[in-house]
Amino acid sequence: MQALPECLELSHSLRNFTLGNQTKQIMKKNADKGKSEGENNMPKQRKTSSKNGEIETYLSSRYEFRYNTVLGRTEYRDKDDTHFSKVGRYEINTLRRELDNDVGIITSSDNLYSIIESSFSPRINPIQEYFKALPLLDIGSSCSNTNEYNSCRNASSLSLKAIPDLASCVVVRNSDKWLPYLTKWLVAVVANAMDNRECRNHTCLVLTGEQGKFKTTFLDLLCPPALHGYSYTGKIYPQEKDTLTYIGQNLIVNIDDQLKALNKRDENELKNLITCPMVKYRMPYDKYVEEHPHLASFVASVNGNDFLTDPTGSRRFLPFEVLSINIERAKAISMDNVYAEAKALLKLGFRYWFDDDEIAELYRESEDFQVQTAEMELLLRCFKSQRRMKVIR
């Protein structure tokens, strides 16, 4: 009878032994499986190309992209094209369609935007690139006169052609100042466009006179054809935010027959806008207001002559009364050559700003463009009356 319990105990032990071995085998299998899964979770070697990499390869093979820092927009062009176009919703959808049809890659608009609006598109300032690409002309190696800053006082001793030719297209009443003032303004345009921190052109070139003299048309020509998209002609309102955008995104701002209509507050605001070193505004679709370089140089046209209201004078405006303009001859002059000469003058150290003596002279030249206020007219009338009475006595 004792044999039965011993047999049962032995049977139970054998069963436990078998179950124990099975458990160990299962644990070993699980361990091996975990090891295998762990190996699969190890970082794999990067593929030679990803989906985005294939997209970039395709785009680079057919197009050239750039990020326009002036406009805050990505632009692109065909490999055999010279003109860049802005990348918008239509262009993105067209590129998605090409990717699907040509190479079978399906991607979202957001992903395509994230690729294009990145370091994939190099940051370019097209206006500075234009001036850098202009040839550095040999117009002479020295200036006849220098001031205390050891910079050129005038350009009369240098070999210039395009700038004098441009100036000769316009006949003005105060002709002795036309060429030197126009030259200063043109050189200041280049200096200002190449400086990202300061405003270098503190004057506004103003053409006055009768209607139909092609004043506005001539001023529009001062923006070279290669940069025709970076000029603004029309009214500006100093209190509005759009005006700051005009200053940050245009080489030339042409104020068309508005200076007479500006009130005292707007005139003072305009003077500040002409010289402010930076402008703050928010780009479309951006979240934040940011600082942008003061890019614009100012010109203006006025029908009539009297537009200056500050009795103490204004050094911000360079006014000239136009008698005639040979507009067809002006159109035939290469503005690339004009700005190449201005660039060469800047390189030589030509002084494009006005010193104290020149500012005093500018005040005197501007007297003919002053608005006669009612108080001033009354004062002059009384003064004339007193003089007549003295003559009678």
Account of the protein in words:
By secondary structure, the chain is an alpha/beta fold. It has helices at 3-41, 51-62, 89-103, 109-116, 126-133, 162-168, 178-193, 215-220, 241-249, 264-275, 327-332, 335-348, 356-365, 374-392; strands at residues 63-68, 73-78, 85-86, 123-124, 170-172, 204-209, 231-234, 252-256, 278-281, 290-293, 297-303, 317-325. The chain has two domains: 51-124, no CATH class; 129-376, Rossmann fold. The strands form three sheets. It has a six-stranded mixed sheet with strand order 5-12-6-11-8-7. The protein has a four-stranded mixed sheet with strand order 3-2-1-4. The longest helix has 39 residues, at 3-41. It is elongated, with a radius of gyration of 37 Å. It starts with a helix and ends with a helix. It holds the Pfam family VapE-like_dom. Residues 181-369 form the Virulence-associated protein E-like domain.
Shape: elongated
- What's the CATH first level of the largest domain? Alpha Beta
Tell me roughly what share of residues is in helical segments: 40-55%
Structural class comes to alpha/beta
CATH fold type of the largest domain = Rossmann fold
Quote the average pLDDT. 83
Total domain modules = 2
- Please report the distance between the alpha carbons of the first and last residues: 168 Å
Strand order of the largest sheet: 5-12-6-11-8-7
Total helical elements: 14
Report the C-alpha radius of gyration, rounded: 37 Å
Beta-sheet strand percentage? Answer: 5-15%
The succession of helices and strands, N to C, reads HHEEEHHEHHEHEHEHEHEEEEHHHH
Number of strands: 12
CATH architecture descriptor name of the largest domain: 3-Layer(aba) Sandwich
Extract low-pLDDT stretches. 1-21, 31-39, 146-150
Main sheet makeup: 6 strands, mixed
